[in-house]
Specification:
The chain is an alpha+beta fold and 120 residues long. Helices cover 38% and strands 10% of the residues. The protein has a two-stranded antiparallel sheet with strand order 1-2. It is elongated, with a radius of gyration of 34 Å. The N and C termini lie far apart (72 Å). The mean pLDDT is 77.
């Protein structure tokens, strides 16, 4: 609520101006409007924050999928690829275990029998 004497914008819950100390004559409607406006501002800030979070997460997910696609682009199912997995060891004796990576063979599609109930 704005003070009529100095123009300072006070919260709706105070009885005296925080700048000049003049008593504020507030009606129920003025207090209600001020509180509703404050709630609207908080709500709009919350929506903006959530929208920004969604954009950041969507961009991170897109970059992750793009990276995985680029990494998988060079791999062919008919070639054998070795995957190097860090082994458990101490100090300079660290080694990697060589593990062959195989694509899963394509699954054969078979039709499923579908029994529909008879119409009455």
């Amino acid at each position: 609520m704005k003070c009529v004497l100095c123009g300072f914008d006070n919260p709706a819950t105070v009885s005296y101006c925080r700048s000049c100390g003049k008593k504020l004559d507030l009606t129920h409607e003025e207090i209600k409007q001020a509180l509703e406006e404050k709630a609207r501002l908080e709500s709009s800030k919350n929506v903006e924050y959530q929208a920004n979070q969604f954009v950041v997460l969507a961009a991170a997910f897109f970059l992750l999928m793009l990276t995985l696609r680029i990494m998988a682009a060079g791999m062919r199912p008919d070639e054998e690829h070795l995957v190097f997995v860090p082994g458990v060891s101490l100090g300079e004796k660290a080694a990697y275990a060589e593990t062959p990576f195989e694509f899963m063979p394509p699954l054969e599609m078979e039709p499923l029998p579908l029994d529909l109930p008879a119409d009455k």
